[in-house]
Amino acid sequence: MTLSVPLINLGLGRSANPTLALAAYAVGFSISVVFNAPVLSARVVTAGLARSPAAYRTVARVMRLLGLVLSGSAVTLSLLPAGKWLFTDLLGAPPELVGPARLVLLLQAPIPMLVAERGLAQGMILLYRQTVLITLATLARLAAVTAMVLLLAVVFRLPGAAAGALSLTSGIAMEALWIRVSVRRRFGPFRRPLPAGTPVPGTELTSRRVLGFALPLALNHTVWSMQRALINSFIARLADPVTALAAFGVVTPLFLFFSSPLFGMQATVQVLPRNRRDLRQLARFTLAVAIGLSLSSGIVVWGAARWILEAGYGLAGRPLAAALPALAWIWIHPLLMGFRAFGQGMLLRTGRTGPIALSAASRVVLVSSLGFGLVAGFPEGNGAMIGISMQMAGDAWDMVLACLWGARAVRRSLR
């Protein structure tokens, strides 16, 4: 999934004004993803609570309503004067980026509804442990994103930010449709019995219980997604904001891409281990994959960073000089994200989502404090490097808290 934005950036790097397109899309996407974030929890909520047709209907009702409200809110914000205030005054975006960024938010407004539908289907797939269907749906998404961004940005020369937004919306729509049809055809809803050993919640599922489980997760996803907009609001106040936003907008998706194979450990730890021995095996697996991704990302960056940024994204001059040193730290990120996902999976396994929300709230304080200090201390500094430092500090904080609280929780629930 995280390959979508790097693919979009590759197309924008070949548009008429690549630096402006990359910066505008980065600013607009950083707000759009905040509206998408709360419904990202639909997958783990479905896997954790929807163990019967009636329970599934309850989860689906809550998640679809949430997606509809979020999509409507994104449309409203993009069109009203408050949207201009958000991008200009709160985020500090330069005037030439405000209009394209608001257009990105409008064109990506349907995504929360699409993500809710996708998450409901993915939750069913996790329950039945048929995760290859998620891979096939993701490939459909990437094909649609690639085709659309090349067609719109390169062939038809649509303004870069708008081309990127339409490409992502089209790709997620294709993914949601593909996975929904696959699930209905194979086992949905509940045409087959659940696999042996699947725990069944002991009480009747109500909308209130769904919200109690889902809201801390929604807060965590929102804060993690909002972090990009928060970082943008700081680096946009540096001496060269367009360069900072463009370079950070290119580097961040690459960090996420090289860490993304480990994101699935959250759901894996939630549904798979039967005892502590299984959990220890998953911990060793997480460590091995994290080390492998760290080494591979470090080797790729060491050997081809300049070529990737120049030939792939069209960066040159100051944006290239800003992105190169930030990209050099990419090897740390898989370790942080792997054990962040592992710790949160342990909490989901035990049904304790409250600590995840507490970690998210404290993360905002940490990242904001670091941002104030770095921007005040280095007003002429490298915006991409400052942004990546803030991002990794927040991820490290989440990882430590999730692993400590998660290990404590599973000691009481697994033998």
Structure characterization notes:
This protein has helices spanning 4-12, 18-36, 42-49, 53-79, 81-90, 95-107, 111-128, 132-155, 160-186, 207-235, 241-259, 265-271, 276-312, 317-327, 333-349, 354-377, 383-413. It is mainly alpha-helical and 415 residues long. It has two domains: 1-195, no CATH class; 206-415, no CATH class. Helix 4 (53-79) packs across helix 5 and helix 10 runs parallel beside helix 16. It starts with a helix and ends with a helix. The model has no long low-confidence stretch (mean pLDDT 88).
What are the SSEs and their pairings?
Elements: H1 4-12, H2 18-36, H3 42-49, H4 53-79, H5 81-90, H6 95-107, H7 111-128, H8 132-155, H9 160-186, H10 207-235, H11 241-259, H12 265-271, H13 276-312, H14 317-327, H15 333-349, H16 354-377, H17 383-413
Helix pairs in contact: 1-8, 1-9, 2-6, 2-9, 2-10, 2-11, 3-4, 3-7, 4-5, 4-6, 4-7, 5-6, 6-9, 7-9, 8-9, 10-16, 10-17, 11-14, 11-15, 11-17, 12-15, 13-14, 13-15, 14-17, 15-17, 16-17
Provide keyphrases for this structure:
2 domains, globular, mainly alpha, 415 residues, 80% helix, single chain
Please give a quick description of this structure.
This protein is mainly α.
Number of helices: 17
How many domains make up the coordinates? 2
**Proportion in helices:** over 70%
The largest sheet is: none
